[in-house]
Design brief:
With about 100 residues, this protein is α+β, with helices and mostly antiparallel strands. It has three helices and three strands, in the order H-E-E-H-E-H. The chain has helices spanning about 5-10, 55-65, 90-95, and strands spanning about 30-35, 40-45, 75-80. A three-stranded mixed β-sheet has the order 1-2-3, covered by helices on one side. Strand 1 and strand 2 form a beta hairpin.
Length: about 100
């Protein structure tokens, strides 16, 4: 199976933020997906806040999800520039 951005996104859609109850892809936490080669991926992501208590857990869930599709080296880089804001669809779902 060839590693593609769509395949990675499908895996990320399976990772549910335990506090919000929505997957990290839909929440807009993932800013960039860079496939370095068939076994290595770099993810640029954010969280709701720099003090998010789930930081390590979410990074581990990303690595585990990508390991399931054969990615051996997952580099997760966090940024808060720009700060996270819920996408329009998420705001509607949350009644905001």
């Amino acid at each position: 199976m060839k590693l593609t951005k769509d395949l990675i996104i499908k895996q990320l859609e399976q990772i549910i933020d335990p506090h919000i109850g929505i997957d990290i892809w839909t929440l807009g936490f993932i800013y960039e997906i860079n496939i370095k080669d068939e076994k290595s991926v770099h993810i640029l992501m954010t969280l709701t806040t720099p003090m998010c208590p789930l930081d390590g857990d979410i990074q581990d869930m990303i690595k585990d999800a990508l390991l399931e599709i054969g990615v051996e080296n997952v580099e997760v880089e966090k940024t808060f520039n720009p700060p996270w804001t819920p996408p329009e669809a998420v705001r509607r779902m949350m009644g905001i």
